[in-house]
C-alpha cells in the first residue's frame, strides 16, 4: 500500500496472554468530548457508470481507512496543498483528495472520507463490488474539495510514489515470522509496518459484525485522531458504527516512563488493527493472505514491550 506525497466489554472478549487478562480500561480523560464534523460538512457522490468495471470491496475498504488515517496525522486546520494519494492494492488505482479553489483542510478531508465510506457501506452492505466515484465535499464555507476513486483510461507511472523504507520492511518481516504461527488462529500478535516497536496482541471472540458496520466504526475512530492529534496524549476513543449497534473502544494505560499512548500511536494501532488483523492484508508481500475477519475482538497495544493501551471492538 503506497502513499504518494506532494467499545463495557463482555467477559468473552477478554484477552488472556501469559496468564494476564485484558480488562476494560476506565477512561482517563473525564473531559473527553466526541469530535464533531466541521459546520455543515456533507458529501455529494457521483457514481461511475454501471458499465465501468467496479472495484473489489477489499480494495476500497482497506484504502479508505489507511488513507484517512494518513491524513489524520496532519493538523486538522492545516491546508491540504499538493497531492496526497494512496494506491489501492488490487486495482493499482489511486484514491485522491483534491482541494477546491479555496483549498481544503486536512480535518475536512478526514470527515469527507468518513461520510463517503459510510455511504459506501450503506449502498454495498453485502461485501459486493464497489463502483468508482467522485465525492464532492461541502461545508458552510461552500465547496471544499473532492475525493476521487475512478479507473483511469491508462495507468501512468508516478515518480513521486513512495513506500515504507526497506529497513523497516526487513525488521518487520523478521519479527512477524515469530508470530506467523498465530496468524490464522483466534489470537495472535501483529507488528506495525509503520513502526516496528508497536505491537498489537489480539483475540477474536467469534461473534460476527457486519463488515460495513465495522468499516464505519474504524472510520469514525480515525476522526478522533484527527481532532486531537498533537494536542494531548490522554487517548480515549469510543467510536460507534453507523447503525450504533457496534463500537470501537481504545484507552491508554497509566504507565510511567517515556512510552505513552499518544494520538500518533493510536492512529498507527488503528491502521495495524484494520490492515493486518481485520482485512488480512500483508504489506511486505502486498497481498491479502486470507479473507477479512469481521468479528468482535479485544486487543492490547505495546510499545517497546510496554503495554500502553488496550481496547475492544464489538
Which percent range describes the beta-strand content? 25-35%
Low-confidence stretches: 4-31, 154-184
Strand order of the largest sheet: 4-7-8-6-5-1-9
From the N-terminal CA to the C-terminal CA, the straight-line distance is: 27 Å
Tell me roughly what share of residues is in helical segments: 25-40%
Mean pLDDT level: 82
Give the helix/strand class.
Answer: alpha+beta
**Dominant shape:** globular
Number of strands: 17
Major sheet characteristics: 7 strands, antiparallel
Order of helices and strands: EEEEHEEHEEEHEEHEEHEEEE
**Cα Rg:** 19 Å
Individual helix count: 5
Provide the descriptors you would attach to this structure in a database record:
alpha+beta, 6-stranded antiparallel sheet, single chain, 7-stranded antiparallel sheet, 314 residues
Structure notes:
- There is one protein chain.
- This protein is α+β, with helices and mostly antiparallel strands.
- The chain contains five helices and 17 strands.
- The protein has helices spanning 57-71, 106-123, 166-179, 211-228, 263-278, and strands at residues 2-4, 16-17, 20-21, 42-47, 85-87, 94-99, 133-139, 142-149, 161-162, 187-191, 198-208, 236-240, 247-252, 281-282, 287-288, 295-303, 306-313.
- The strands form four sheets. Strands 4-7-8-6-5-1-9 form a seven-stranded antiparallel sheet, covered by helices on one side. Strands 10-11-16-17-13-12 form a six-stranded antiparallel sheet.
- β16 (295-303) and β17 (306-313) form a beta hairpin.
- α1 runs parallel beside α4, α1 runs antiparallel to α5 and α4 packs antiparallel against α5 (263-278).
- The chain is globular.
- 46% of the residues are buried.
Amino acid at each position: 500500500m503506497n502513499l504518494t506525497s506532494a467499545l463495557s466489554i463482555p467477559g468473552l472478549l477478554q484477552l488472556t496472554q501469559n496468564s494476564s487478562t485484558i480488562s476494560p480500561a476506565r477512561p482517563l480523560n473525564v473531559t473527553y468530548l466526541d469530535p464533531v464534523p466541521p459546520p455543515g460538512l456533507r458529501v455529494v457522490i457521483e457514481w461511475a457508470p454501471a458499465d465501468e468495471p467496479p472495484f473489489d470491496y477489499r480494495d476500497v475498504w482497506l484504502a479508505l481507512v489507511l488513507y484517512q488515517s494518513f491524513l489524520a496525522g496532519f493538523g486538522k486546520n492545516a491546508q491540504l496543498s499538493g497531492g496526497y494519494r494512496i494506491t489501492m492494492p488490487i486495482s493499482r488505482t489511486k484514491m485522491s483528495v483534491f482541494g477546491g479553489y479555496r483549498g481544503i483542510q486536512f480535518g475536512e478531508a478526514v470527515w469527507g472520507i468518513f461520510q463517503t465510506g459510510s455511504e459506501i457501506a450503506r449502498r454495498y452492505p453485502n461485501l459486493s463490488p464497489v463502483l468508482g466515484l467522485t465525492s464532492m465535499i461541502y461545508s458552510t464555507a461552500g465547496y471544499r474539495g473532492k475525493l476521487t476513486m475512478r479507473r483511469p483510461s491508462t495507468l501512468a507511472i508516478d515518480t513521486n510514489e513512495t513506500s515504507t523504507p526497506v529497513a523497516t520492511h526487513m525488521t518487520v518481516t523478521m519479527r512477524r515470522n515469530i508470530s506467523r504461527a498465530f496468524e490464522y488462529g483466534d489470537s495472535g500478535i501483529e507488528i506495525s509496518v509503520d513502526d516496528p516497536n508497536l505491537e498489537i496482541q489480539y483475540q477474536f471472540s467469534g461473534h460476527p459484525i457486519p463488515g460495513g458496520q465495522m468499516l464505519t466504526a474504524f472510520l469514525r475512530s480515525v476522526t478522533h485522531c484527527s481532532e486531537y492529534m498533537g494536542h494531548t496524549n490522554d487517548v480515549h476513543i469510543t467510536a460507534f458504527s453507523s447503525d450504533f449497534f457496534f463500537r470501537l473502544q481504545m484507552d491508554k494505560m497509566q504507565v510511567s516512563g517515556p512510552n505513552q499512548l499518544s494520538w500518533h500511536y493510536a492512529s498507527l494501532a488503528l491502521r495495524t488493527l484494520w490492515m493486518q488483523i481485520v482485512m488480512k492484508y500483508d504489506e511486505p508481500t502486498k497481498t491479502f493472505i486470507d479473507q477479512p475477519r469481521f468479528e468482535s475482538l479485544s486487543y492490547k497495544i505495546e510499545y517497546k514491550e510496554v503495554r500502553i493501551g488496550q481496547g475492544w471492538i464489538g
